[in-house]
Amino acid sequence: MSQQLLVGLDLGSSRIRLAMGQVSHTAERGLSLSVVGAVDVPSQGISKGVVTALEDAVGAISAGLEQAERHVGSPIEEAVVGIGGAHISVMASKGVVGVSRPDREVRPEDVERVMEEARGVANPANHEILHVLPHGFVVDGQSGIHDPVGMHGIRIEANAHLVLGIAGNVRNMTKCVFRTGLDIASLVFGPMASALAVTSSRERELGVCVVNLGASTTSILVYEDGELVHAKVLPIGSDHITSDIAIGLRTSLKIAEDVKLLKGSALPESFGKRDEIDMVEFGAEQSELVSLQYVAEIIHARLEEIFEKVEEELRSADRSGLLPAGVVLTGGGAKLQGTVEVARSVLRLPASIGTASHIHTPMPEYVHDPAFSVAVGLVQWGFDELRGGHTSPSFISGGLLKAGGGIAGKIGSSVKKIFKSFIP
Questions:
Q1: Which of 353, 384, 405 is the last residue of a domain?
Q2: In the 8-state DSSP scheme, what is residue 389?
Q3: Are the CB atoms for 221 and 52 separated by under 8 Å?
Q4: What is the mean pLDDT of residues 64-91?
Q5: What is the pTM of this model?
Q6: What domain count does the chain have?
Q7: Taking the C-alpha atoms of 197, 202, 205 and 206 in order, what is their torsion angle to the nearest 10 degrees?
């Protein structure tokens, strides 16, 4: 039995999280994945998905790597890296090419060419393409085709979504990773990896919205027919709830954060008028009784605002109230009591907390934690690439087409060269 280590690195604004997966191969079962470790350290030098202090960010990533290496007992050489932030955007694109073979049979090379065409048609200046996601093909006017390989035709069109990041922000983030001595196996839009971990293929087929409540951003992804149809990153997150509590209670951010985590709820009706806390218990210098109902009203107001913005995005995508699989909440902010109830009320859809419960692990307390969904999803992403996934029928990552099989290894080295060129 052979084994291989896969590492997912989530570069968050509040915490840097790593998940380590062990890939085993046996003649009987083939490839199998088990997440064997997870660590998190405070994030520094990163705000809203953007590097604000290079050396601080390198130090924080290095601290996380050291903990992870002690946990697995071996050096970590490369990782699947997830990035996010409000600078990430998704735009539609389209490519058109002629079928090259004389017998007019569509080959994988034709699909590669049309996807490259879609990639080149819409490429705004100062942006890096993270992913090109096929969104249906058209062969000689016949639409609704998911995989055109083997069909006959003269002209093939591809509709695609480009996931873009501002070039400077992407390069600064990759530079931080390389400065630690770590190689990047794949660079991934983190919320997409999170969606892979917390939703099933069935949910993505029916229609589902994944809302990742981070510290300083909230990511929204809408899937339908198994494909990403809309994505948006909002520059607002659970840190804004902490700030609201600090202002409302006239206290420090640290005390406000402790109150939120230990006593916070988004349901004011769950408390009575006599339910109070003494601020001295949370580190305040003077005794002061605060109503938990008042704290809950503050939290509810901010969460309601966040989900109203999510509803605006669903309306812009014509999916408001129309997603059978509902809303799946993930990220550290989703653990706040009452978040699900507020989401149901505002979005008028079924809502639930999403966890990576389908992934085998001896550490469920970490792997099934919504806060680790991106890191665990990155491990799952790397495992799918190892098995030849993300290739139905084509998938571009890091600006290069991955078409499965033996091409993947060659492309992997090419991607690394591109990322390393970011370092001056």
A1: 353
A2: -
A3: no
A4: 92
A5: 0.87
A6: 2
A7: -110
Do residues 281 and 143 both lie within one domain?
Answer: no
Tell me the helix, strand and coil percentages in the chain, rounded to 5: 40, 30, 30
Q: Examine residue 377 and state whether it is found in any structural domain, yes or no.
A: no
pLDDT at res. 400: 33
> Are 215 and 294 members of one domain?
yes
Using alpha carbons, list the distances in angstroms from residue 114 to 110, 150, 225, 404: 6, 15, 21, 17
Separation CA 173–CA 180 (nearest Å): 12
What is the spatial distance between Cα 166 and Cα 213, in angstroms, rounded to a whole number? 22
Instruction: Give the three-state DSSP class for 55.
Output: helix
Cβ atoms of 98 and 140 closer than 8 Å: no
Backbone angles phi, psi at 401, to 5 degrees: -80, 130
Instruction: Please tell me the predicted confidence (pLDDT) of residue 421.
Output: 52
Q: How many alpha carbons lie under 13 Å from residue 135 in its C-beta half-sphere?
A: 22
The CATH number assigned to the domain holding 207 equals 3.30.420.40
Report if residue 154 sits inside a domain.
yes
**Which residues contact residue 191 at a Cβ distance below 8 angstroms, ignoring those fewer than 6 apart?**
84, 210, 212, 219, 221, 231, 233, 374
Residue 137 sits in a domain whose CATH number is 3.30.1490.110
SS3 7: strand
Name which of 35, 47, 75 is nearest 182 in CA terms. 75
Locate 299 and state its tokens. Answer: 């939290």
CA distance linking residue 198 with residue 223, whole number of Å: 13
Gap between the Cα atoms of 118 and 116, Å rounded: 5
Q: How many residues does the chain have?
A: 424
Separation of alpha carbons 38 and 158, rounded Å: 39
CA distances from 348 to 175, 306, 326, 341 (A): 42, 14, 9, 10
The CA distance from 135 to 145, in Å, is: 9
Gap between the Cα atoms of 290 and 241, Å rounded: 17
**From CA 303, how far away is CA 291, in angstroms rounded?**
19
Q: How crowded is the C-beta side of 115, counted as CA atoms within 13 Å?
A: 29
Domain boundary among 353, 373, 407: 353
Average confidence (pLDDT) over 179-199:
94
> Which domain range does residue 134 map to?
89-165
Same domain, 212 and 159: no
Instruction: Examine the domain organization and report whether 158 and 227 are in the same domain.
Output: no
Same domain, 211 and 301: yes
- The whole-number pLDDT of residue 388 equals 75
